[in-house]
Specification:
Its EC number is 3.2.2.6. Strand 36 and strand 37 form a beta hairpin. The model is unreliable at about 1-10, about 240-250, about 285-315, about 780-790, about 810-820 and about 860-870 (pLDDT under 50). The chain has about 850 residues and is an alpha/beta fold. It has 18 helices and 38 strands.
């Protein structure tokens, strides 16, 4: 569902309907037991990517998972790139909460096959130009589950030798070409009077190629008819009326300054993020947004077929001697044969990955603005001090031989310095701490770093990241001038024992994130002077035992995470009137250990106590938290009862509370409660009274409340049987329902039930509703957004029940988008088929109940009765 987009996104795509209609039969959607590979091929600019995107948006909801990989040709120049594409496919299909780390394409291919071989998936691979790309991304139809569709776009038909079907898009019809051209030339669907003949002449020169129509139309926009005549006369004199000449006309009309932007983008930046291109071009004084917005023009500049990159083996050490005007250098693989002895003074930007030599020959007085290097063998960037007044950006990643970051005192304008995964980096020069314009500083995954700058005296610094530097024993001191730092991240620095008292100077600090610093024992009292601090996260600092006495003065603090620490006994929450989120998970907290004056947190909305193994019952103070909306108790294995919850509670999560024996009748008191997770709490089934309460929750008061609001609501309880009031029940994950005549005016919503062997909070339940020709689209039921996994596999299983109000549905026809939320009158008959599944598994048994208006009335009048169906 997350990939669904309304048809309005395609309203401006001229000719897309006829192309989709021609492609539809090739998809063989009625064949659900086979994997089909479909190829879309044709010349550049014909619209292959656009067709693939439109098709993806229209049908992706029909699959268990989907992934669109754009520009494979550009994103697969190295093994690292291929691995990144493999990770994206797995993440897209299986879920963003999974962390796939693939370092070898062969391994990645095996993972894709193992994880997706039983899933019905839709994968679009855009712009394939080498069959070896397919070998690592979609080598065979046996990689994917029955019903899967793999769509490949390419310029080379020969790559599609194993495809089940191939589609070569036709050129636009003349009427479509006129409309597309007119939209770009006149912002209308047809030419105005006086321009019809001129438009027809222009269209003839484009060959009705969509890309050329857009570019030439944009070229003529706002120009007088005389300019049209002159330009078309020039075209008529050209010996070749193909697309390249059309594009060259548009390019030649630009002034020299604009041509430089286009050439820079086309030759150097194609495939980069727009924000990165803008940043680089800005260093030349360009106004790059204009050039970048002409993305279609950039895409049309094609390297001739006779040019073979594999023929370029390297260059000599003096190759740059004659390149005095070289400004941008981008080398993405092992390219050189001899170590370069010279780099031009005019060079502004260097991106050189896999650089195999020990140092860069950067001139003493350099105009360099940016330096990016990955997987290079550099031992020292340069020797001595270099005068580089223009240098603004340095990003070094996986430089395993670099041991020392050099003196940058003569590069005072550096704004961003990121040192990542430089495993042998030991020292960062003191001058870094005195860079007056430094905004972002990151030292990330530098395993041997133990001598960072001892002091930060950078008044412009906004973010500082020290992540996974296990040899780091101290963090830099801060000078009083560091007044702009808003975010400080310190992760997995296991030797750091204390924070510096000079943290008091960070007057603008709003986010302090210290995770898994397992030696951290002291938080200085000066932290309490930071009045802008809104979030403190100290998860995993297992030795942290003290807490400043003045802590209650932090009246603006909104989030406090102290999971897996030992300082909860010292907390005084009396004056934290702004605190909204409190996390005390993974601690040994009993009822007597709770922070003092918890009931004083009058704004607290979320309280997390998960995986506290001393917790037997909740303290009475929790019931006084009038604004508390979410209470999490997952994994509290010794808690025995739940009672006296806050009156406004909306979400109660108590999964895997294996000793939980008693709950109160939650349906009576808690009118706002719409989500309850009790899976893995099998002891609840041993008490008959609990089962009565569960029955009440599922049918009576909760159904009445749910039907009164437009909100998806859910309950998960232990068990393996569907409640008896679900009149429609079936084994398996699919069930059909007959709806009443004129159901559109009577229905309030649907209650759907599924029995699962295993459930996890990380992955949502997936429900599909469909009639014969229509899909009923519902909002994706969101997965839990926290980092702690709560999953359960028990002999009793889990029963999941969800209520979806009718007002939350939209409708979609199989052949076209028609998102409407009110008019259902045209769907008068046919069975409603419902499918229930979650990540990696389908429901063992499912049930469904249509909630009509009269049902709510009868529920209000009936008396609850115990059902033994649990």
């Amino acid at each position: 569902m997350g990939n669904m987009q309304p048809r309005g996104m395609e309203d401006n795509l001229i000719g897309i309907e006829s192309r989709i209609e021609a492609l539809n039969p090739l998809l063989s959607m009625q064949t659900t037991d086979e994997v089909h590979i479909i190829g879309i091929y044709g010349m550049g600019g014909i619209g292959k990517t656009t067709i693939g995107q439109a098709l993806f948006r229209r049908i992706s909801f029909k699959y268990e998972g989907s992934s669109f990989i754009k520009n494979v040709r550009e994103q697969s120049s190295s093994k690292k790139d291929i691995c990144a594409l493999q990770e994206k496919i797995l993440t897209d299909v299986l879920g963003t909460n999974l962390n796939f780390i693939i370092q070898d394409p062969e391994y990645g291919a095996n993972v894709i096959q193992e994880r997706l071989c039983s899933k019905k998936v839709l994968i679009v691979l855009d712009d394939i130009n080498d069959v070896r790309q397919l070998e690592f991304l979609a080598a065979s139809d046996n990689w994917f589950g029955a019903g899967s569709r793999i769509i490949i776009t390419t310029r080379d038909e020969h790559i599609l030798s194993d495809a089940n079907a191939k589609y070569n898009p036709a050129l636009l019809r003349m009427d479509q070409a006129i409309e597309l051209f007119s939209r770009h030339a006149f912002r209308k669907n047809s030419p105005p009077e006086g321009y019809k003949e001129l438009s027809n002449r222009a269209i003839c020169y484009t060959g009705r190629l969509p890309l050329a129509l857009k570019i030439l139309g944009s070229f003529f926009r706002g120009r007088e008819s005389g300019v049209w005549e002159s330009a078309l006369d020039r075209l008529a004199k050209l010996p070749n009326h193909e697309v390249f000449e059309t594009l060259k006309l548009s390019f030649d009309d630009l002034n020299e300054f604009e041509q430089k932007i286009i050439l820079d983008i086309a030759c150097f930046f194609k495939g980069r993020e727009v924000k990165d291109v803008t940043r680089i071009l800005d260093t030349f004084g360009f106004h790059p947004v204009i050039g970048i917005s002409a993305q279609e023009l950039i895409e049309a500049i094609v390297v001739p077929k006779e040019y073979n990159q594999n023929q370029i083996k390297g260059f000599r050490s003096n190759v740059f001697k004659q390149m005095n005007n070289l400004r941008l250098l981008d080398v993405n693989d092992k390219f050189t044969t001899d170590e370069p002895s010279f780099l031009p003074n005019n060079l502004r930007w260097i991106t050189w990955n896999h650089y195999p030599f020990s140092s860069l020959p950067i001139p003493h007085k350099s105009k360099l603005v940016g330096l990016e290097m990955e997987y290079a063998k550099v031992q020292h960037l340069w020797k001595g001090t270099k005068i580089m007044p223009n240098l603004k950006f340095i990003h070094l990643e996986n430089l395993d031989c670099l041991t020392r970051f050099p003196d940058v005192s003569e590069a005072p304008n550096i704004e961003s310095l990121i040192l990542s995964q430089c495993d042998n980096l030991v020292e960062v020069h003191e001058s870094v701490g005195f860079l007056k314009r430094l905004v972002h500083l990151g030292m990330i995954h530098c395993m041997k770093l133990n001598r960072p700058p001892s002091r930060i005296k950078t008044e412009s610094l906004e973010t500082l990241k020290l992540i996974n530097c296990p040899s780091l024993e101290t963090i830099p001191e801060f000078s009083p001038c560091v007044v702009k730092l808003s975010s400080l991240d310190i992760y997995y620095c296991s030797k750091i024992e204390k924070l510096p008292s000079s943290i008091r100077y960070l007057s603008n600090l709003s986010f302090l994130n210290i995770r898994n610093c397992t030696s951290l024992e002291i938080i200085p009292s000066s932290i309490c002077e930071l009045k802008c601090l809104k979030s403190i996260r100290l998860f995993g600092c297992s030795k942290l035992q003290n807490w400043p006495d003045q802590f209650s003065s932090m009246i603006n603090l909104q989030e406090l995470k102290l999971g897996h620490t030992k300082c909860f006994n010292f907390l005084d929450l009396t004056s934290l009137c702004s605190l909204r989120k409190l996390d005390l998970s993974w601690n040994q907290i009993g009822e007597e250990d709770f922070p003092r004056n918890l009931d004083g947190c009058i704004s607290l909305e979320k309280l997390r106590l998960s995986f506290n193994l001393k917790l037997v019952c909740l303290p009475a103070s929790i019931s006084y938290l009038s604004h508390l909306k979410q209470l999490e108790l997952d994994g509290c294995r010794w808690i025995r009862s739940l009672h006296s919850l806050p009156p406004g509670i909306q979400v109660l999560s108590a999964a895997n509370c294996t000793s939980l024996e008693k709950i109160e009748d939650l349906s009576k008191e808690y009118e706002c409660l719409y989500k309850i997770w009790l899976f893995g709490c099998d002891k609840l089934l041993e008490d008959e009274q609990n089962q009565i309460y569960l029955d009440n929750m599922l049918k009576h008061s909760f159904m009445k409340k749910w039907a009164a609001v437009d909100r998806c609501s859910s309950i998960v309880i232990p068990g393996s049987k569907i409640p008896s009031w679900f009149k429609q029940q079936r084994n398996g994950h699919q069930i059909s329902l007959k709806l009443q005549p004129k159901w559109q005016t009577k229905i309030l919503g649907f209650a759907v039930c599924g029995v699962f062997k295993e459930l996890t909070k990380f992955f949502p339940i997936h429900i599909v509703f469909r009639f014969e020709n229509y899909e009923m689209i519902i909002p994706k039921l969101e997965a839990d957004d926290e980092e702690i996994d709560a999953s359960s596999t028990t002999e009793n299983g889990s029963v999941w029940i969800n209520y979806i109000p009718f007002t939350s549905f939209a409708q979609m026809h199989d052949d076209y988008y028609d998102f409407q939320r009110e008019d259902w009158s045209h769907i008068t008959e046919g069975d409603l088929v419902i499918n229930v599944s979650t990540f990696g598994q389908k429901a063992l048994r499912c049930g469904a109940h249509v909630v009509y208006k009269e049902d709510v009335e009868s529920i209000q009048q009936s008396k609850p009765s115990f059902s033994s169906s649990y």
